[in-house]
Design goal:
Layout: E1 4-5, E2 20-23, H1 27-38, E3 43-47, H2 52-59, E4 65-66, H3 67-73, E5 76-79, H4 83-94, E6 103-106, H5 110-113, E7 124-130, H6 134-142, E8 149-155, H7 161-171, H8 174-177, E9 179-181, H9 184-199, H10 201-216, H11 221-230, H12 232-250, H13 253-266, H14 269-284, H15 286-296, H16 300-310, H17 313-324, H18 326-335
Parallel strand pairs: 2-3, 2-5, 3-4, 5-6, 6-7, 8-9
Antiparallel strand pairs: 1-9, 7-8
Helix pairs in contact: 1-6, 3-4, 9-10, 9-14, 10-11, 17-18
């Protein structure tokens, strides 16, 4: 059994006298900055002047600094801006402010692992990656609990990098839920694989292709939508609460027999071969290169796929259905 780290394993006094600068005030930045401040940590936020988050941070009682100012001031600099802009912002605005003894912190290992960011010697490099969206990081903290997280040390110049990571994890509430130790490499590769193969890529394509096929066979789009998309949440909730067997135990015997026998027909050894190719592209850095070059071009392919996606029938049907049902309306606002 892997070791989990809890409240007693983190010591907030590790951060005494250290200025923590949170760069970015988006999904993770806002949640983590607020949690750290509520935990008594000395927090400043660093933002683009005039950017949308500036006002938000002010409304929450921060006096935002520019990214350069915050990086200069911070003993611990938390890089919580989108992964695809981190390398550029790091080079121009963060790196110049880093000093020996500082700690650079990330919530995802991507840029450091793929050497898009190469921190200087003398700087500790750590990660605390919440396994949930920022809204959850904040909400659970306010409820007196926290969001399970991964933590890692890439560079330990001070000999205290893990202590710093655990103090940050405690400050954001993660140690209340549990923290598991990983490496930048493991977190990055498994995170990318998970979102490509299962969570975002695989699931959405299973839904899309099932929807398009069944509607082409003449079934009513609304009925199909419920069967192949809407009910997914109920199934995922069962899986998340108690694992796969818990899900099987809570569906009908017909669903269980059909699912256990047909699942491996849909996702077969051909899919496993593709998993190998996808992991190989992640490990080699080929995916990272592809994505960074897409970003450098201004995400033309991504924009095209977004446009195509929102024009699909399944989106229109979903929109209509959600507006017809109160429950759907609640779900939509919760997802916002
Ligand atoms: P986000 O998209 O919410 O970040 C937006 C923030 O970054 C805003 O404050 C914006 O002003 C700022 N920003 C954007 N471009 C900028 C630029 N060029 N210069 C300065 N500031 C800029 O980001 P996020 O989803 O919170 O992700 C932050 C990090 O957390 C990433 O490494 C991500 O992988 C990781 N992470 C995110 C989640 C999540 O819930 N979204 C979960 C776990 C880990
Ligand atoms: Mg992830």
């Amino acid at each position: 059994m892997v070791k989990a780290y809890y409240e007693k394993d983190g010591d907030l006094s590790t951060l005494d006298g250290r200025q923590v600068s949170v760069i970015g005030y988006g999904i993770q930045g806002r949640a983590q900055a607020l949690n750290l401040r509520d935990s008594g940590v000395n927090v400043e936020v660093g933002l683009r002047k005039g950017g949308a988050s500036w006002k938000k941070a002010e409304e929450d009682g921060f006096k935002p600094l520019t990214v350069s100012e915050a990086a200069e001031l911070g003993d611990v600099v938390m890089v919580l801006i989108p992964d695809e802009v981190q390398a550029v912002v790091y080079a121009s605005e963060i790196a110049p402010g880093l000093k020996k003894g500082n700690t650079l912190e990330f919530a995802h290992g991507f840029n450091v692992h793929f050497s898009k960011i190469v921190p200087p010697d003398g700087v500790d490099v750590v990660m605390v990656a919440p396994k949930g969206p920022g809204q959850m990081v904040r909400r659970t903290y306010l409820e007196g609990f926290g969001t399970p997280s991964l933590a890692a040390v890439e560079k330990d110049h001070s000999g205290k990098a893990w202590e710093t990571a655990m103090a940050l994890a405690k400050g954001i509430g993660a140690t209340r839920a549990g923290v598991i130790k990983t490496t930048f490499r493991e977190e990055t590769e498994t995170d990318n694989f998970g979102e490509q193969v299962v969570l975002c890529g695989g699931v959405s394509e299973l839904i899309r292709k099932s929807f398009n096929y069944l509607t082409s066979e003449g079934y009513q789009p609304e009925i199909v939508y419920f069967e192949v998309l809407h009910e997914l949440k109920l199934i995922v909730d069962l899986i998340q609460a108690g694992g796969l067997e818990n899900m099987w135990n809570n569906v009908s015997n017909t669903a269980e027999y059909g699912g256990r026998t047909r699942g491996p027909v849909v996702v077969d050894s051909g899919t496993e071969e593709k998993m190998k190719k996808i992991l190989a592209d992640i490990r080699s850095g080929a995916f990272a290169e592809e994505w960074m070059s897409e970003v450098a071009k201004g995400v033309p392919n991504l924009d095209g796929m977004r446009k195509k996606g929102s024009d699909e029938t399944i989106e229109k049907v979903g929109k209509e259905l959600r507006s017809m049902f109160v429950k759907g309306e609640e779900a939509t606002s919760a997802a916002r």
